[in-house]
Amino acid sequence: MTDRNALQGFARRLTEPLLPHFSEGRARLRLGVNTAIHDDTAAELESFARPLWGLAPLAAGGGAFEHWGHWVRGLATGTDPDHPEYWGEPGPHDQRIVEMAAIGFALALAPDRLWDPLKGPERDRVARWLRSALDRPTTENNWLFFPVLIGLGLDRVGVSYDPAPIRVRLDRLESFALGDGWYADGPTERRDYYVPWAMHFYGLLYAALAGERDPERAVRFRMRASLFAADFQHWFADDGAAVPYGRSLTYRFAQAAFWAALPYAGVEALPWGVVKGHLLRHLRWWQRRPEAVGEGLLSIGYGYPQPALAEQYNAPGSPYWAMESLLPLALPASHPFWTA
What is the pLDDT of residue 1? Predict the structure, then answer.
């Protein structure tokens, strides 16, 4: 794992083992027994949506992937109330909102792969389903970003919506800033990887995708990320290992998602070669652990399959949040991140 081509191949290798597990209508991915607190439909939507964190950047950067048809068909059937694989409308504090954000992200980065192939009525249903999440109450933490990301996807495909609730959420998110680039994950004392892989990652996505219409907020998101990098670099060893600390360790190499988001948002918080080194060394560290990141499905666990590590919200598809770390695939090969 030393260059862009290798990272493209890694994205495909992570995704291809999922293909035999698609349902007939392609809206569900059944990867195992769901023991999370949310229902099976939400768990199977999660398995469908989370790979998009890596597939959308792969497509945006021109990388090949032969199976987009699975996700296009699944998006059409999963948002059709008359189809047996309908995902259902999200309720308050619903896991569906989390996974809808991954779909919004994919629409923002790769509309030609996921939106353009849809027919008119299918687009209408997708838009209606995504809009239904924008005013739903969410947990007062990083979840506030999920309707924001859904809105970014709707913006990209030309679907209108009321932006006022989005601004309220963004203002609330910024109220969690602590200084020196750090955030609280909501009104709590939690300071773990949800700061880099959620609060900063989504803030940098917003800065990159909405910075022209909201420039002052984009500057603040970028500035905080630049400050945070000075501290966060010390969470990584010279061999790429990261401190195994905090919640959701089963997301594994999402630990490096912050380093992936910096170049996408144009934030050279450290020299590009240093940023790239942090990301690729971390991914190589995981590649040397085939029990954790091998040729099959990602498992719940950390260095090896370990169901006892699961939080109450971890379903079989939860580990694919790790694919956030593939975001630099959206950048051209000529970007200084890749040439450093």
Answer: 84
> Considering the chain, what is the average pLDDT of its residues?
97
With CA atoms as reference, report the closest residue to 38 among 100, 96, 101, 102: 96
Q: What digits encode the pLDDT tens for the residues 53-65?
A: 999 999 999 999 9
Please report the domains of the chain, with CATH numbers, ordered by start residue: 4-339 (1.50.10.20)
Residue 131 confidence (pLDDT) above 80: yes
Q: What is the pTM of this model?
A: 0.97
The dihedral built from the CA positions of residue 129, 134, 140 and 142, taken in this order, carries a sign that is positive
Interatomic CA distance for residues 268 and 284, integer angstroms: 22
**Residue 293 pLDDT class (50, 70, 90 cuts):** confident
Dist CA 263 CA 55 (whole Å):
18
